[in-house]
Amino acid sequence: MSTSPTINTLVQEYYGEILTFLTSRLRSRDQAADAVQETFLRVLTSSSSQPIMNARALLYKTATNITIDLFRRDQRQSNRSVNLEDAHDLPSRHADPERVVAGKEDVQILSHAIAELPPKCRHVFLLHKVRGKSHREIAAHLGISQNMVEKHIIKGVAHCRQRLHNLK
Question: Does the pLDDT value for residue 24 go beyond 70?
Answer without folding.
Answer: yes
